[in-house]
Specification:
440 residues; alpha/beta; Rossmann fold; 5-stranded parallel β-sheet; 15% strand; globular
């Protein structure tokens, strides 16, 4: 059985996936990482006909000793019941559209799967959980939708008031069974700090707290699946025959628009379990701690204040999952395998426009950061390998940015249009644990 330990535990005390999932954050404040990563034969997923089929074959390698196969298959079929197409822009560039789930964000994959995994274990235990989530945009709505109505789970969302788009806020505050939303009068760092402090607060120790953002290992395993599904949609010759081949034109790179680094961690899990990846490109917005770390010697765990940008779901000054990646990969391997860059607002909007003019493709700001990252990577390294860049959110969620950059109205999306007809429920609170504690 694959077990897990905290990044801050020198003794590497092992726990099951069930315990890591339900706790979310380790008691010492660390993040859970696997003691081993299963090597998964590509024959098990390369010829799959759907993402759900990939999920069944791959997650069984991680969880087969904790969840019966029949139960896991039902979980995956219910969670991953929407498309994830690979769209060709040119002979050497694709975008993997991760925004066809119910909240039109890549975070639907992890949130929906995690909710059903949690419900499976909680039902068996006859227990309940109170999920605390800090969100800078898309995480909260994906968790709210994915967990709503689960019998054993209640969700509390914290988001920075006035620092998410109007559409994103509407997705967060729509009234759902078992979900409460709080607009924090601060930034995302305040929200994330409040969640971490709540987990460590003795005054809240009587509550069955857990997490559902990317600090929870249960979010990241499902996110590794679409990297594999992307490759299964390509012709076999797109894949380098040698893992980590850096000079071959046939090697395949992935560009990951990055914020809290959960999406990148999912990709690293996929690669460590057998997927061939030449390089990862970590494309950040103005919150550039991780690129700075990759290219120079900087204090790995210093606090970095969040900068607000047009790609707001990636507005994370001090990404939590850096701690996880730091412990998963030796420093030399990390810096040779992952290349990082940052993109400002002006360049993001410019890339959105050039993408539309060149390919006729409308990208959201986050996806545009990734596409700009691809261009910067190729210019800096001369690597002409094929690249799959992740398209993280539906452009309809960012009408202001689309109008500003492209000068066109954003195409309507029914899933968003119906939001404005629904009842909402939100409370504004101060950016401190005392304010949150009163409501919990």
């Amino acid at each position: 059985m694959i077990q897990y330990y905290s990044t801050r535990d020198q003794h590497k005390t092992l726990v099951s996936f069930e315990e890591a999932l339900l706790k979310g954050l380790a008691p010492d404040g660390g993040l859970y990482i696997p003691s081993e990563i299963p090597e998964i034969d590509s024959l098990n997923w390369l010829n799959a006909h759907s993402l759900a089929e990939v999920g069944k074959k791959v997650l069984s390698a991680w969880l087969k000793e904790e969840i019966p196969e029949a139960d896991l298959n039902l979980i995956v079929d219910d969670a991953l019941n929407f498309p994830c197409p690979l769209v060709k822009l040119s002979d050497d560039l694709w975008v993997l559209e991760l925004f066809h789930g119910p909240t039109l964000s890549f975070k639907d994959f992890g949130a929906r799967t995690m909710a059903r995994l949690m419900q499976h274990f909680l039902k068996k235990r006859s227990e309940k959980r109170l999920i605390l989530v800090a969100t800078s945009g898309d995480t909260g709505s994906a968790v709210a939708d994915g967990f709503a109505g689960q019998d054993n789970i209640e969700v509390v969302l914290l988001y920075p008031k006035g620092k998410v788009s109007k559409v994103q806020e509407r997705q967060l505050i729509v009234k759902r069974p078992g979900v409460r939303s709080f607009a924090v009068e601060g930034n995302f760092d305040d929200c994330q700090r409040m969640v971490k402090e709540a987990f460590l607060d003795p005054g809240l120790s009587h509550l069955p707290l857990s997490s559902a953002n990317s600090i929870n290992i249960g979010r990241l395993l499902p996110q590794s699946l679409y990297y594999l599904w992307a490759v299964s949609q390509l012709k076999p010759q797109a894949i380098s025959p040698v893992r980590g081949a850096e000079e071959s034109k046939e090697s395949l790179n992935f560009c990951v628009p990055s914020g809290n680094l959960g999406n990148l961690t999912g990709g690293i899990f996929a690669a460590l379990s057998g997927q061939e990846v030449g390089h990862f490109i970590a494309a950040h917005n103005a919150n550039h701690f991780f690129p700075d770390y990759l290219h120079a010697e900087v204090d790995a765990f210093a606090f970095h204040k969040t900068i607000a940008t047009v790609s707001n779901a990636m507005d994370v000054g001090s990404p939590s999952n850096f701690e996880r990646i730091y412990h998963l990969l030796p420093d030399k391997k990390l810096k040779s395998w992952v290349w990082g860059t940052s993109v400002d607002n002006k360049t993001t909007l410019k890339r959105m426009k050039s993408c539309y003019e060149t390919y006729g493709y409308i990208s959201c700001p986050h996806t545009a950061v990734g596409l700009e990252g691809v261009a910067l990577y190729r210019e800096a390294t001369g690597d002409s390998s094929r690249v799959i860049s992740l398209a993280c959110a539906h452009p309809a969620k960012f009408p202001e940015a689309i109008t500003e950059s492209l000068g066109i109205a954003t195409p309507k999306e029914e899933a968003l249009e119906v939001l404005w007809q629904k009842e909402t429920n939100v409370i504004s609170i101060e950016p401190n644990l005392s304010a949150l504690r009163r409501h919990l």
